[in-house]
């Protein structure tokens, strides 16, 4: 069924579906180069059509080619030097596939010519039979060699991918881990670096190499086939030569000029003009999702959702809401399909209609030649036209530049060279000074931290309090250099943070946040990451860290204990169904379960995850307790029970006492605020109070004194009561 008809009520004729795509100023109003058309209840907007052959941009293309060529040449040479044998064999196989279609076409024409002459002469000698058999054997040999070349290209592609993955990915991993958070989240890094789920299929440099080889191969194949057709034309009679010449010109013209979609090959967006469409989609999700069912059942709304769905569905009517067909294609104008069908799909019928039948044998031979040439040339032109993707050759060459840009990515934050600690640094801990510090997450966003000024002396116990969204976490994210202040200055031991080597400075910090994620490796590897192999010492560190993080019982309950992976990095392990591939058998699945790794996550609660994260931090503290000068705990125990939180915070205080500065952010004040040397009270990004618990409570009693801290403290006490 027509994709446009799928989007319409049955009463609307298909001829009214597609608005005129010509720029006549009436049916397609344009705004900023955007054009629109209607498909049933959907409005479609798209940009200017792709221009595959534009003389206007020829000079610009040449300039772009000159700019991209050095990087492309460099990458091709690097790929060759990385895997010389694989590249050489791959290219030779590709060249064989360039020659074979044209040679096959030539052989078929020669064989048909021999048959035609033999039939006309009404006699066939042994020499004719031998020559005919020899030509057929050569033709079959070419087909066999083409098949082998295709398999060789597939095999060498796998080998080449392995070489390129081993060559480029370590560099890109090093680049990614060298970047600070803003640089990693930039559009340039997102566009250039591999994605976190691209381990199996993302091979840097291979797509570039494959596209270059394939496009060159397709171009040379078409040139070779057109050349052979020209040779065949010269050998045929006048009418046959004219017909072959007509097909040789028209077939490439139709296939190359036919738009790839009804909007000229440009991408498009679409939206429903009937808002009930989106409401019905929401009701559909509510009805069939497991996530909403408990709430829906408790609220007694199941019957209401059912009735509401029926009502909205009736209001929407018989409009088909399928968007898959609209996502994948918009049909071209009817005359393009008609021309393509006559010229490319049914050349035999056209030959039978046009050719004179005065010489039936010659006519039949010409018809067979046209059909065979059409089939061969059509596939080559389809590949040349770029059904692999809409990227132009210039864009493909630009991929090389993008890869080298990715390798050369640098952090956006200023990185110093000073090692920490400094000769004058206190052994009691890190001295921290904020001088009129402001910070916004991105350009144009409101300030998350505004003009904050304070000092935390070395060895102090500091507590940062404030309502949600007051800027506490944003403030603390500046300490390890994850972000850079928008204004002001941060001093570490009286030296600007920007002048320190960040790796050295971070090595003296132990930070724990409320949204810590466990790495997708075993718990043992999580706890001991970066440590050398010392089995006895490792076991003692793990035991002590789990005890301090209140996670001993939790880890013992896990099926593999310290070898448990909470959320494994999933890798494909079975075939995809479809295209001739059926279901995986139960027996095969049992083999996978018996011998393959499990990718099922191990469910743990939020509180249990926080215990494991705390255990990981204690493990690091124990490993480098002589180096750590600052402990930061940013609401990292909010999901654990009160007793566990008390023990974890107490262990942090005791483990770092006398040699670290400790900063805690918490909503549960308890005894922590009473023990604090300094309390920082944040509100709407500003520091509104500072002092000890006693000082802040006394300030609230004074006339006109700030009550922010006192109100939070009393609210906490009232909640406990």
Automatic annotation (TrEMBL):
> SUPFAM superfamilies given for it?
P-loop containing nucleoside triphosphate hydrolases
Keyword annotations of the record: ATP-binding, Hydrolase, Membrane, Nucleotide-binding, Transmembrane, Transmembrane helix
Keyword Nucleus recorded = no
Pinpoint the ABC transporter domain residues: 432-709
SMART domains given for it? Answer: AAA
Q: Which InterPro entries match?
A: AAA+_ATPase (IPR003593), ABC_transporter-like_ATP-bd (IPR003439), P-loop_NTPase (IPR027417), Type_1_exporter (IPR039421)
Please verify whether the record's keywords include Zinc.
Answer: no
Q: Which Pfam families match?
A: ABC_tran
TM region(s), chain numbering: 103-120, 132-154
Superkingdom of the source? Eukaryota
One MF term from GO for this chain? Answer: ATPase-coupled transmembrane transporter activity
Q: Which family does it belong to?
A: Belongs to the ABC transporter superfamily. ABCB family. Heavy Metal importer (TC 3.A.1.210) subfamily.
- What name has this protein been given in UniProt? P-loop containing nucleoside triphosphate hydrolase protein
């Amino acid at each position: 069924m027509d994709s446009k008809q799928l989007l319409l009520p049955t009463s609307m004729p298909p001829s009214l579906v597609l608005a005129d795509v010509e720029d006549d100023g009436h049916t397609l109003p344009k705004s900023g180069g955007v054009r629109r058309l209607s498909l049933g209840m959907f409005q479609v907007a798209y940009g200017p059509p792709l221009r595959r052959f534009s003389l206007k941009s020829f000079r610009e293309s040449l300039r772009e080619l000159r700019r991209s060529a050095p990087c492309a040449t460099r990458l091709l040479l690097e790929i060759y030097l990385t895997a010389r044998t694989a590249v050489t064999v791959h290219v030779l196989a590709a060249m064989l596939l360039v020659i074979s279609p044209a040679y096959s076409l030539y052989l078929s024409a020669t064989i048909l010519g021999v048959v035609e002459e033999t039939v006309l002469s009404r006699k066939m000698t042994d020499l004719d039979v031998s020559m005919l058999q020899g030509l057929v054997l050569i033709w079959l040999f070419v087909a066999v060699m083409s098949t082998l070349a295709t398999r060789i290209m597939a095999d060498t592609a796998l080998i080449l991918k392995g070489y390129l993955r081993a060559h480029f990915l370590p560099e890109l991993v090093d680049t990614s881990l060298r970047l600070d958070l803003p640089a990693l989240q930039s559009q340039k890094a997102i566009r250039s670096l591999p994605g976190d789920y691209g381990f199996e299929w993302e091979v840097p440099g291979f797509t570039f190499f494959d596209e270059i080889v394939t496009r060159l191969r397709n171009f040379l194949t078409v040139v070779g086939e057109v050349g052979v057709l020209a040779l065949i034309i010269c050998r045929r009679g006048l009418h046959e030569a004219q017909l072959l010449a007509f097909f040789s010109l028209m077939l490439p013209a139709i296939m190359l000029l036919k738009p790839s979609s009804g909007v000229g090959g440009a991408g498009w967006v679409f939206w429903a003009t009937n808002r009930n469409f989106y409401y019905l989609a929401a009701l559909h999700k509510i009805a069939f999702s497991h996530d909403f069912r408990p709430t829906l059942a408790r609220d007694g709304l199941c019957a209401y959702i059912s009735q509401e769905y029926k009502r909205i569905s009736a209001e929407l009517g018989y409009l088909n809401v399928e968007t898959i067909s609209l996502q994948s294609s918009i049909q071209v104008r009817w005359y393009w399909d008609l021309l393509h069908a006559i010229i490319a799909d049914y050349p035999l019928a056209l030959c039978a209609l046009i050719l004179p039948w005065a010489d039936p044998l010659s006519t039949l031979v010409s018809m067979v030649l046209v059909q065979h040439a059409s089939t061969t040339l059509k596939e080559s032109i389809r590949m040349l036209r770029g059904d692999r993707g809409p990227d132009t050759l210039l864009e493909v060459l630009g991929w090389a530049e993008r890869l080298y840009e990715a390798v050369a990515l640098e952090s956006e934050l200023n990185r110093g060279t000073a090692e920490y600690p400094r000769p004058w640094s206190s052994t009691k801990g890190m001295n921290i000074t904020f001088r009129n510090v402001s910070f916004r997450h991105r350009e144009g966003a409101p300030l998350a931290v505004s003009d904050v000024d304070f000092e935390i002396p070395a060895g102090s116990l500091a507590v940062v309090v404030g309502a949600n969204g007051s800027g506490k976490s944003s403030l603390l994210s500046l300490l390890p250099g994850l972000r850079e202040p928008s204004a002001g200055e941060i001093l570490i031991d009286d030296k600007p943070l920007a002048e320190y080597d960040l790796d050295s400075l971070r090595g003296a910090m132990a930070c724990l946040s409320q949204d810590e994620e466990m790495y997708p490796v075993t718990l043992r590897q999580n706890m001991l990451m970066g440590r050398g192999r010392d089995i006895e010492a490792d076991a003692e560190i793990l035991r002590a860290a789990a005890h301090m993080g209140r996670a001993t019982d939790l880890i013992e309950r896990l099926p593999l204990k310290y070898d448990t992976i909470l959320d494994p990095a999933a890798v494909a392990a079975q075939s995809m169904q479809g295209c001739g591939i059926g279901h995986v058998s139960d027996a095969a699945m049992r083999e996978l379960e018996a011998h393959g790794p499990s990718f099922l996550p191990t469910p743990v609660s939020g509180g249990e995850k926080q215990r494991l994260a705390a255990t990981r931090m204690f493990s690091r503290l124990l490993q480098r307790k002589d180096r750590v000068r600052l402990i930061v705990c940013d609401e990292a125990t909010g999901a654990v029970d009160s007793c566990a939180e008390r023990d974890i915070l107490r262990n942090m205080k005791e483990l770092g006492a006398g040699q670290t500065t400790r900063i805690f952010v918490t909503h549960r004040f308890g005894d922590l605020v009473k023990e604090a040397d300094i309390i920082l009270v944040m509100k709407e990004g500003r520091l509104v109070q500072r002092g000890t618990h006693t000082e802040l409570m006394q300030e609230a009693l004074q006339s006109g004194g700030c009550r922010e801290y006192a109100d939070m403290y009393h609210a906490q006490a009232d909640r406990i009561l």
